[in-house]
Sequence to fold (497 residues):
Amino acid sequence: MGLRTGDQYVEGLRNRKHVKVYVMGKRVEDVTTNLFMKPSLLSFKATFDAAFQEDTRDLARAYSPFINEEINRFVHIHQGPQDLVAKVKLLRALSHKTGSCFQRCVGWDGLNTMYIITGKLAEKGKPVYRERFLKYLEEVQRRDLALAGAMTDARGVRSLRPHEQPNPDAYVRVVEERDDGIIVRGAKANITGVALVDEVIVMPTRAMTEKDAPYAVAFAVPLDSPGVTVVVGRQINDVRKAEGDIDGLPYMSHHEGLIIFEDVFVPWDRVFLYQEWQWAGPLVEVFSAFHRQGYAGCKSGLGDVIIGAAYNLAKQIGVADKPNIVDKLTEMVFLNESMYSAGLAASWEGKKLLKDGGWWVNPMYANVTKHLVSRFPYEISRLSHDIAGGIIGTAPSEFDLKNSEIRQLVEKYLQGVPEFTAEDRLRMLRLLENVSVSVGFLIESVHGAGSPAAQKIVFSRLYDFQGAEAVAKRLARMRGPEPPGTPEPHKKSDVEK
Fold:
């Protein structure tokens, strides 16, 4: 059956032979035992365990028509709007289990993106990519592989196209074509969960011209491939996660890394796009909309954690029922549910892009979702800090609490209402600090799946200003073209066209 337990996933990461993983400047031989990587490993593991846990089992499983088996939803190809909705709901539920990003979404979105793009190419008379991808998909689903999606290149000089770069490897490119495959070189940056996956799906990061053809490549490789190096990045409070069981909250977290390809061989059966430069732009459009829709789930789930922590801390100091606190909590709920609602709208309004399926999100609502996410988490965090008080940034450490010489004093002055202990308060403060001031809830909300400017570009392309003008002209009794005749003045995306 195409389902692995969390323990089976972890065991599959042991005994790598080729990939070089570096953490804090040191080579890591076994990522499953490295203390720095442990919180990230546990968060990734939760995506496998969810398929066997009663409260998430139905959301975390799906039936695959490709292998005729039940599989983990994180390797599922969406079969309709219901699957897109289930994705958002699953991500919110998993955030409650991890208090962090769980790192498997980008690979999932990459899988669905390549299903659509290779399907479109097949409809245009180029079936070879589709045949290769479907064979790969079956392997992924049967083995329940952990995937990373690698899209963001190092990019070098941002004002120059790939072929114009002074460093020709600033974008991943093909440097040699062989009878049995291709040789690739370059790097992808900020890749979520990359050191803890089985495979990496590599995709172009931007629209390209004919001169950029060597860079218009999409492929999949095992992470444990000769020539692959991963440099794990740093995050806020990252070393704290190894400190005790209070200051170390949350017990799970995530990581990003720089993955470098130094003349890596990719066999032809794992190449899903090559020199088809016209398709680089549509590929990015499909992927970005998928990924922006998903943020509705994970960010609202983390928002729930923050709202719950803020509410509990207000109770601990006896102010949870005060009007100004209730108003702040209610505002946080509004912001959180707005992000979630937009993601559900993008899902229910999903579109079928292929004759045999290929369900995609509504691109307008997916981008609206991500634009809300780029703003609202910061306000949710600000309000939670307002409620918690300055102590969220100045609380004593758990080592002070455990010091027999000062424990009683810390307990006496850190306690609020008698119902809660000083340790209760310190635990909740640390949870709120680590979740609300984090890469996963703040920085990623701005830059993940594209910065706010990227969503505005999509808005301007998809909104039919002339159609809206025609509506206004008709109501003003002015001469002009007929209104578009649809409830929403939206244009078709390039992919739909």
Summary: The CA atoms of residues 414 and 473 lie 64 Å apart. Residues 280-316 form the longest helix (37 residues). The longest strand covers residues 181-192.
